[in-house]
Amino acid sequence: MRKFHWISAISILSAAIIIGSCKTKFDTTESNFTATRSEIALEHGRVLVYSICGGCHYDPTVNKFIGTRIHEVPGIVGTVYSANLTNSKSNGVPPRYSDAELRYLLKTGVARDGRFIPYMLRPNMADEDMNDIIVYLRSDDPAVAAADTTIGITHFNLIGKMAMNIMAKPLPYKTGINRPTESDPIASGRYLVDNIGCFHCHSKSVTKLNYLYPEQSKGYMAGGMKFKTRQGMEIYASNLTPDKQTGIGDYTQSQFRKAVKDGEAPHRNLHPPMPKFKRLSDRDVDAMYAYLQTIPASFHKVHGH
Ligand code: HEC
Ligand code: HEC
Questions:
Q1: Whole-model pTM over 0.85
Q2: Ligand 2: centre distance to CA 79 (Å)
Q3: How many angstroms separate the CA atoms of 24 and 35, rounded?
């Protein structure tokens, strides 16, 4: 009994020290930036927001970006809800942010109130794409038009708070980045795998991702990350390296399109959390295919595949 007390006292103390010693509030930006609206920016921004933010912020039952519960976060750290991205003055987040603050959050992970939010990190995103995302979020498109729905409030327990504090490492604020030209499919594909965030799920572990240099992430694109569906089923992300036995080395370009856009792999239907990237152009999907053929083939048999 005595021993048990000591152990719990020590763990609570070390937890407190870890929490206390990590910085938990960071400065947001004071830079000026105003997104430039145009019809093309709006259309392109819609594709990006559906493809990049959709998985975590879109509720397909109401067709709006009102936020959802993030089931992929293990219950051991608490419960996590994303945010309402509509233009609701009461519950939507974008109306409370300036364009510069939004861009700063998406690039560095630092929110307007100084919290570090580790889910959206896109340090390498081109200025143009960042602009278009903001233009779309501020538009009157029905999916982002004001909806006052509240979906739930994130709650971290002690373990969750510790994990968050350890992970709280804002990324450098890099701007002045151009999108690769479309005439270079391999560079475009690499950019898309990075910025749509395919590598976030298709590499070894969320804690071993390298956001600045994605290709240096542990087990880059070789799959194996474990997810749980809402129904509690375990799903493992696929190996997308060109290995012929365990990866997608035998995929044709059109099979790849079907898998990425419609969730239909050659021999099976794909489960969530693999999104259906319906809005991506064939050109973008083909570029990712071309790029993925060039990365090192990794022999890695994924559980259940
Ligand atoms: C992997 C899941 C995920 C993706 C992808 C994602 N988000 Fe989030 N986002 C979250 C979660 C979870 C929160 C809430 C975090 C919290 O409050 O603890 C959040 C919060 C936010 C917030 C609120 C910040 C605040 O001050 O409370 C904004 C704005 C936001 N996200 C924008 C975006 C945009 C724009 C995209 C797409 C470019 C995106 N997110 C993609 C998970 C995600
Ligand atoms: C939120 C996590 C997540 C994201 C983001 C994601 N995937 Fe997946 N993907 C998965 C999971 C999980 C599976 C396995 C699904 C299954 O086995 O039912 C999968 C399967 C696949 C497959 C099927 C391969 C096979 O035959 O086993 C392809 C192709 C694929 N993803 C491509 C992509 C591309 C390209 C992107 C980015 C544009 C992407 N994925 C983004 C989680 C994700």
A1: yes
A2: 24
A3: 29
